[in-house]
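User: Fold this; tokens only.

Assistant: Input:
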Amino acid sequence: MRKPPPRPAERPAGTAPRRSAAPAQRAQFAVALALFVLALVAVSPAALLDRAARRRRRARGRTGTSVATAQRILLRPLPGRIGDLRLRGTYLPARTSARSGGDLYDAVRTPYGTRLLIGDVRAKGMLAVEASALLLRSFREAACEEEELTAVARRLEGDARGHIARLPGAETPERFATALLVEIPAGPVARVVHCGHPEPLLVSGGQVRACPPERPGAPIGMADLVGAGHEAQTLPFRAGERLVLLTDGFTEARDAAGRPFAERVGERAAAPLDGLVDGLRADLVRHTGGVLRDDAALLVVDRAAG
């Protein structure tokens, strides 16, 4: 006898039939996918690029800060006074790491008088910081050991060439430095060795006079390439006078009207030493609208009156 087919399980009265959970899951997935797509659409490609650019700027800013900090650490505080000389220096980093690093200055008491260095390494970033450290160390040693100021320049030249020789080939064309070496003995003179650097300014009687070299000297690291040696030039430097040494971050700065910054030195020539240095620093920031395109360093030395 054929058995009847099995009967479905009986449901309690008033109970709705059980439905599969798959359609509900599919619906939830569709809603989530739609929300994800809307989020992608809301963030346009331009917005994504803008975010990436902001991240790069923040990274450059951190790098620029570290370069400027390292350079400031190298520039140890100048002695406020050496004998009858009073000294003051200042350094302002460029706005980006791509232009920052490399300006340097120092002053050393030696058996031959007070010797000063101001320079500008033609490299930027941490490469410039490394080269600055080399030149400052070389100057501090040679200034106390070499009787002639030209011999100090030759020591810097030799050390710079050794540094350049150790760099990768692609880096060497830009690895040199402009510099001024100044020696101030007991007498009323100053001796200067120009190494391709902006000339010093002599402030006397409220007037400013540029002191260009009698014969241009080669930048440090390039004497062999250009076939020029280093010569000392003697300038008058009497009691009550001051020498202003600058890097091209100051000398080449222009305001919105294109006026050169050097005019500012004359406007502040009669100010006390601190007022001159602080004023020129503030003038440079205003002069450039707060956007320095290159490092800037300034070293001023007064010969006390009487």
